[in-house]
Structures are given as C-alpha cells and as structure tokens.
Amino acid sequence: SSIPLGARLSLLLAALWCALARAEEPEEDSLVAHTGQLVAFVTIAAPRGGLGQEPLDPLLRVRQDGIFRPGDVRQDVATLFRAGQFAQVEAWLYPWPVQLPNGEEAEGVRMEYRVYPQPRVAKLVVTGARTLPAPELLGRLGLAQGNVWAQDDLSRWEAAVAETYLARGWPSASATLERVYDDDGDVELHLSVTEGDPRRIAELRVRPTAALSEAEARSLMARSGLRVGRPWTDAALRLAQEAVVSRLHEYPGQFLWWRG
Q: What is the rounded CA–CA span in Å between residue 19 and residue 92?
C-alpha cells in the first residue's frame, strides 16, 4: 500500500473506536484489509479495573497465532460485553510484525480488547435531611456507596425521596440529586433535601359506643400513630382502623331471641 504505516494505523484506530465502542457493530471495510493476517498477540485490558477473577481469554475467537477475521472481532466484543456485564467494550487493532512458519517476516496484527466496568457510587453526600436520618433515607431508596450505578434517570430518585417523606406525613418535601463522574468513571452523588412542613393532626374526635369507650379508642389510635400534633399519614389511619375493627370483633354479642 502507498499509505504510510503510521497513517494507516491512525485511520484504522479511529474507525475501530467509532465502530466498536459500547459493543456496536464494527465497520467491515476498515478491517477487511487485515483479513487473513497472522495474529501476533491478543490481550484484554481493564484501564479502570473490574476484570474479575474468572479469565475471559478462553471466550475469545481471535487467538494468538491464529488468522485474523473481522467477524471474530465483532463476536468477541459482543461476548465480552455480555459475559462481564461491562459498561463499554472497545477493540483496538495494531499492525504488528510477525514471522511466518517459513521464516519470512510479514505484517500481522496485534489485538487488544479494552473493557470498562459499570460505574459505581464512589461517594454519597446528603444535605437537608433532618426528619429522616441520612442512613435511613438512603436505605429506603436502596442507595449505598459501592453500588453499581446503572440508572441515570435522576428524577426517579428525586421522586422516590418525595414519596418517602409523603408516607411519613411531609407532603411538600422535595429533593435534588446531582451526579458527578470522577476520573475513574465512577459517580459522586449529592442529594439535597427540602423537607418543607409536615401535615399535622390538629384534632381527633371520637364517638364512643357500648363496645368501645372513648379512652380505649384514643389509646388504640395513639398506638397506631394517630395523635394530636403528630404528622398525618395514611398508614397510621389504616393501622388505627384495623385496631378498632379488631377490638370491636372481640366485643361479645347480645342474645336477643330464641325459638324452639
């Protein structure tokens, strides 16, 4: 070829970067020139770690001392992407001098696969949460440092915070979640909470019956979370209703009529 080796290498790497990043289909035209060449080396690199203990080399179709075929590269990228659950898989091809079985030197290829793990939560910062301690709030959301970060829909987490506070009687609470990627590709999460004011119980009215006195009804409601001054929640109301119904079922019925 009249194209210098360095220029061919740059063009080929650019094509491979665009074609194979994130396990997309490679462009056959950019690889066909190397079809049938001898493979000098095949390596798997993890610039950010995350290879795991199980070797991935046996899964590859491109093998050292084998014949290079573009279709094998495409299958290897897809296989690595699935097997390692990586966020990104890249294939890099380098022209490389090789020695043929007859002793002659020729141009071969060196193949390098680069794998990048799913980003993880490297840091979690919570501000503005007073009613719910930060560990409890993050536990309810299922967020923890070290977790794999595969959900970029920040509004989902913000809505989950609002729902969590609503269930505790704080209907106007809101949250803002900010995500920052660090140099290793992991994320730092900053959760800012605005709690607002709770919806408190101002008054409780009880109509006593023969089966349930006012004092006992108020006691049942208080144990369920319904008490003047406490935040109102639907959960507390359901608990109080269940407690009252259960107590009424315990009240002995009155014998009215019998006919023999």
A: 10
Helix (H) or strand (E) holding 107: strand 105-116
Q: For the packed helices 134-141 and 154-167, what is the interaxial angle rounded to 10 degrees?
A: 120
Classified as helix, coil or strand, 254 is: coil
Q: What does the pLDDT look like over 87-113, one tens digit per residue?
A: 889 999 999 999 888 888 999 999 999
Mention every residue, 6+ apart, whose C-beta is less than 8 A from residue 17.
90, 92
Both tokens of 152, joined, read: 């970029």
- DSSP letter string over 149-189? -----HHHHHHHHHHHHHHTT-TT-EEEEEEEE-TTS-EEE
Helix axes 234-249, 214-224, angle to 10 degrees: 140
Angle at 115 between CA 14 and CA 26, to 5 degrees: 40
Name which of 107, 89, 88, 111 is nearest 98 in CA terms: 107
| C-alpha to C-alpha distances, 175 to 122, 172, 194, 195, 250, nearest whole angstrom | 20, 10, 6, 8, 45
C-alpha closest to that of 192 among 177, 170, 212: 177
To the nearest 10°, the Cα dihedral for 232, 234, 240, 241?
140
| Digit-coded pLDDT (tens) for 5-30 | 333 333 333 333 333 334 444 455 66
For residues 13 and 2, what is the distance between their CA atoms, to the nearest angstrom?
Answer: 18
**Can you give the pTM of this predicted structure?**
0.59
